[in-house]
Every structure is written in structure tokens, then in C-alpha cells.
Amino acid sequence: MNAEIISVGTEIILGDIVNTNATYLAKELALLGIDVYYQSSVGDNEDRLINAFEEGLKRSDIIITTGGLGPTNDDITKEVACKVFNQKMEIDKNSLEKIEEFFYKLGIEMTENNKKQAYFPKGAIILKNKNGTAPGAILKKDNKYIIILPGPPKEMKLMFEDEVKPYLKDMSNEILVSRTLKLFGIGEAVLESKIIDIINEQNNPTIAPYISNMELRLRITAKSDNEENANNMIEPIIEKIKDRVGKFIYAQDNISMETVVSKMLIEKKLTISTAESCTGGLVSATLINYPGISSVFMEGCVTYSNESKINRLGVNPNTLEEYGAVSEETAREMAKGIAKNFNTNVAISTTGIAGPEGGTSDKPVGLVYIGIYINGKTTVNKYILHGNREEIRLRATKNALNDLRLRLLEL
Amino acid sequence: MNAEIISVGTEIILGDIVNTNATYLAKELALLGIDVYYQSSVGDNEDRLINAFEEGLKRSDIIITTGGLGPTNDDITKEVACKVFNQKMEIDKNSLEKIEEFFYKLGIEMTENNKKQAYFPKGAIILKNKNGTAPGAILKKDNKYIIILPGPPKEMKLMFEDEVKPYLKDMSNEILVSRTLKLFGIGEAVLESKIIDIINEQNNPTIAPYISNMELRLRITAKSDNEENANNMIEPIIEKIKDRVGKFIYAQDNISMETVVSKMLIEKKLTISTAESCTGGLVSATLINYPGISSVFMEGCVTYSNESKINRLGVNPNTLEEYGAVSEETAREMAKGIAKNFNTNVAISTTGIAGPEGGTSDKPVGLVYIGIYINGKTTVNKYILHGNREEIRLRATKNALNDLRLRLLEL
Lengths: 411, 411
What we know:
Oligomer: homodimer
Number of strands of chain A: 17
Pfam family, one (chains A, B): CinA
CATH class of the largest domain in chain A: Alpha Beta
Organism (chains A, B): Romboutsia ilealis
Structural class of chain A: alpha/beta
Strand order of the largest sheet of chain A: 2-1-3-8-7-6
Distance between the termini of chain A: 50 Å
InterPro entries (chains A, B): CinA, CinA-like_C, CinA_C, CinA_KH, Competence-induced_CinA, MoaB/Mog-like_dom_sf, MoaB/Mog_dom
CATH topology of the largest domain in chain A: Molybdenum Cofactor Biosythetic Enzyme, Chain A
Family (chains A, B): Belongs to the CinA family.
Protein name (chains A, B): Putative competence-damage inducible protein
Radius of gyration of chain A: 28 Å
Helix content of chain A: 40-55%
Number of helices of chain A: 14
Largest interface: A-B, 89 and 92 residues
């Protein structure tokens, strides 16, 4: 069974709002085992909406629409859907009462045009709107379905959760389970070349690499009649992949890099401090995203100037003189220095050229040195990162945390 | 002239990522006076992509695609577009060199499948990718255009800005000019109530308030045959609005809060240091987004623990004892302390409860105190911010910079 999502609204077509409804519905439908092959967006225009419905009904069993259920004349989704299915609308007393009640509760007087929201074709399943006035509906004709949902995400999601999901579950006999591996330190092409045979070996589960938030992800998706079977199909694939590229996989699903690193520090009872130049506080700020970090995070320093590197971290002026602020040696002394000054087991240091100015032929924009100190041993990695100033600093931060993760794995 | 946007990628169809590319392109095209009537999304599937192209070409002059230009086998957008236009691809030496250079710079080995990205049909306009490896292209056949752009927003946007926009400008005869006022410290409803008469007065320019990146924006858009006329229509409106809510407007268009504040500091020759608790380095990291900041930014401290507040900032232990770490008094001593220790004219301090744990009835999650020290005078503002841990810390950072801006305006 397959479905298609039509988002209705001129505000989407003009780019005034981001269409998060389609993303939400696509994910929910995938998890219900309902294939979504097309999503589309059209404005509040009858001809184009009819066109979208007719195209959609040719290729899909179910069309789910969001938006265009408001009280004003430019809200036409329900009317157009009925036209396409050639179904007449009549007032639904029950819905009308609920709308009147909604306004009464808010102490707002209900205007005539709100009544429009209480009209539905005979035999339609009417979907309650607990967060607004516009009810939704499920229309059916010759094994084709049009499911009409409101546009405001708060109203749409609750309606889908409460009424549409259970309805679709009964229709679908398959579910999709998806697991995501989060990788760092390997490129998309290299990854694929290392696991291409595994990818090509089978189509259930499917394996798809993609980039999200400047990181590489690998999604393994299994289709089955129940969750346990699906997971049993996914597990061996994950193991296979781990054998090939395990050290690049830092987490699964929704676990963040800072969560992984913070948990390792807490578990190993290692205190940490940070000395940041080019990242300017992003490393500490990212670590502190993890609520439990306070037990091990002692202090962070943003030593942007040479003076502060000398005064706060005890970097040797000669080192800065001889090798420069952006150098392996300086990164090393920064990491050692802050660990010593703040008396922590672990320290991270960053120094680099984020640009746009300040690059030279031997020290280009994007050059970043990251130092990791753990119980007396300091290692420094050199990176050439691409992107604008902000991206270079974000990538430097991600690399710093990943470098720390790899060092902690050795313990 | 009308265009339509096709977003290609299974990650969109499965709801793994939000499709912000379509939103960006829709907005940009509207500003170019090019009508967009349809947006659609399809997975990396040849038949369905062909179907989407053919449907689109029936009803639109221009099709713009994003995604599916990667090096892997499931990236097929360019190949399918050429098939639809019946155009043969051949290797473009110039693009190949650029891709090889990209990998060389990063010191990463280039794999065979990256070469795929250098193939284009004869006569196509090849679009440089300054942020990645995959070049885009403009294909033309019998007055129909297919414009192929990469999926990663950073790559797509830069390519559109630099090469596609000028190209489309030449094709369109009417233009929309849009200016954006960025506001902080005022709510959407209050803003609208203050300028509703100006909004209703006219429809060209139009005035639209909206929320972006947790901030309030006001977009003024004029339609005209040339840019100068459009700007002359917009200017008086902006002046009118400034008369009403001027102090909440911190910048126009693409100027960031950190740019505004940094420029004020540099212009007034004021050095700055930061002492952060709940924001954990976000304030310094945000300031350092501005490249020129190094001349005034002396040092930042992430004093997450009480000890560090005492040792590094000289906060009085009794103050922490009596009022707690999250208090007006502590914020005040933190700001004073860091300004004194690091000998700067200006200092920012933040202390608060970002949650999810740690809230009490009198000190709830979201309570944040922000201290601003300028040449001896310290002021502290109290905020109750909403959202999750990350949002509270981001809002605290934005408020800290805005508080500083307002203090600097008084000088």
C-alpha cells in the first residue's frame, strides 16, 4: 500500500514557512510500512489542487493533505477533495457543536464563516480537532482514500496520532523499522566503497548512506510484519558493517556525539577542561549540551589572544614566536597547560584559522590543530577543514569531540 | 514565467530530513518574480523521477532540482535529467580537475566514483560548487530548463546565489525587492498591534511579520520593474516602522546580532571578556563568529562549577551560599570579576537553569540572569526563558548579546 502527501498552502509555495508537516507524515507513514513515493505542495488554487489530486490518485492508494481547512474563502482543500470524489457536502451537527463550544471556551464570538468547517460529505469519517476548530476527514471512493488534515502542526499531529494512525495500522499488514548509524571521520564515497557489497547484497533490509548536520549517516531499514522480526533482520547487518568501519561509528539513532563523550568521561570518572582558540567556546558549549556533564566538566577557557594563551595556559612565548599560535606545538602546550592549571584528567585544545582572512600558503584558512590531553599523554591532530568561518569552527568542534572519543576508547 | 521545484532524495521521502531547500528556493524565486505553483519530492528512483520531470515539464518553464548529485550509485538526478532531455553526457575536464583539487586540499584520497560528478551533457552550463564536490548544471531544450543543484543546503544556496540567480534575473522582467528588519525583545502580537495600520495601509510594498531562528522578523517586499524603484517604495515604510518600534530593531537583512555588537565594541574601542555558566561558551562562540572581534575580545571563561566561579572570577563564597549560583548577585559578581581579572572595559556574565533537571518552584527551569559590566557599571537582567535545554541556552545567549547592545547604545 502506498500513500502520497499533498501540502496545501500559498505560504508554503512562497517559501514563507518550512513544510515540517510533510516530514512528520513521511516518517510516520514509513514506520507504518506505507510507502510514500511522492510529496507535493500546491497553493490555495482550485485548478492546481484538482490537478495534484488527480495525478496523485493515478499513482497512490492514499492521499493525505495538510492545510486549507480554515474558515476563510481561500481554504478549499475539503471542497476540492469532494469535487474530485464527486461527493456532496452537508452540515455535521456534531462538528458544528464542537466548533461553537471551542469559541465559547475561548470567549470569542464565532463568525458565520466558521460554519463552513462543519460541512462534510455523507459517509465520511470525521476526525476531531482537539487543538483547533477545523475537523479533518477520511474520504473513500473505489479503494482510494483522501485523508484531510489541518495545516497547523499542533492540530495535525494530534489528529494523526489519535485517529489516523490507528486507522492506517488496521489497513497495513507490514511495518518498517529503521535504525541509523552515525559515522564520523570517513567520507560518503569511501564508506560506500568499503561496504558496497553489503549494500548490494540485499534489498530488505535496505542500507542508505546520507549526510545530515555535516555528518555521515547510514540508515538500515527492514520491512516485516512485526518489530521483533525487523530488528532481527537489521542486527546482523549492523554487525557486518561494524566489522568494516566500526571505529568510524560513534553512535546509533538519536545519540549525539557530546552524549557519547560525556558518558565515557563520567563512567571513567575523568574530569575535563577546555582551552579554545578558533572554536571560541563551541567545544565547551557542545559538551554542556549534555545535562550530566557538570560532574566532570571543570572549566573552559576561550584564549583567543596570544596573551591569554600565555597567561592563562602557560604557553611558552617562544613557542608562539617560533611556531605561531596555529601550530602543533601551541595546541600541545594549550592542552597540557589547561589540564595543569585547572587540574583535570582530560583537556581539549583547539587552535586554527577559521577565516575568511588570515590564511597563508603554508597556513591556509581551514587549518586547525586539535590537542587532546589524557592523564599526562597529549596527542595533536592536524586538519584542513572546508566551509565558511562558521562551518570550519563547527567542523573543528566535531573533530575535537571525535578525537577525544577515539583517545578515550584506547583507555 | 513559472518554475517548479523537485527535491530528490529518499531521506526526504522517508522524513529523515526537513526539506528546507524547497523553502529557500521558493522564496528566492518569488523575489525574482518567478511564479512557483508546484513543489514536489521524490526518492532516488529513476521511474518516479522521470515521471516527476515529465509532469513538471508539461506545466512549468523551469524545473529546479536539489539533491541526487552525490558520488554514489543511488545519486541519479543528473543522469535522469539528461535522459528526459535526451542528451548524452561526457566528462568535463575542468570539473574533474576541481573535484581532484578539492580532495587534494583536504588531503583525502579521491575514489573512482567521484569521477561520476564530472560528467555533463554537451552544451550544458556547468555550475561551480565552492562548498563541495558536486557541480550543478543548467540544461536547456526547446525553451524548457532543468536546473540541477546539489542537496546540501550550504552547497545549494551558494551555487544559487552566485550563478543561478543572475541567470534567472536576466530571464525575468519584473522583480521583487525584499528587505528584512530583525527585531529582538518584542513579541509578534505586540509588534503587529503597534504597526497594524501601516500593514493594512498598502499592498505594495507588503509587510509580513514572521519568526525565524527564534527571532522576530519583518519583511517588506516591493514589486517593481527595477531595483531602485522598489527600494524607493520600501524606504519610507522602514522609516515609519522605525518611528514606532525602532529600539527593538537591531539590524536589517543579513546582519547578525554578533556583527552589530562587535562593530559597536570595536568602534568604541572597548575590550570585552565573558564569564559563562549556563550558556557554557555560547556567548563567546557567537561573538567570535565575527571575524574582526579578535581586536577587542580578550578572553572567555566557562565557569560551570562554583569553585571556578570563586577561583577564576572572585565570586564571594558567601554570595553563592546566601543567594545561590543562579541569582542576580552572582551574575553581578561574575561580570565584575571577569572584567577585573582580565582587565577589560566590558564583560558579560550568564548564570541560569537550563534544565531539564534542577528547577524548583522559586527557581524554575528557564530562569537566567545576565550581567553586563561596562566601565564600572554593572546591570543584571532576569529572564524566564522557555524551550528545551538547548533552546534555553540559545535564548540566553541572544538575550545576553541584546542586553549588551542596549547598554552600548546608551554610551
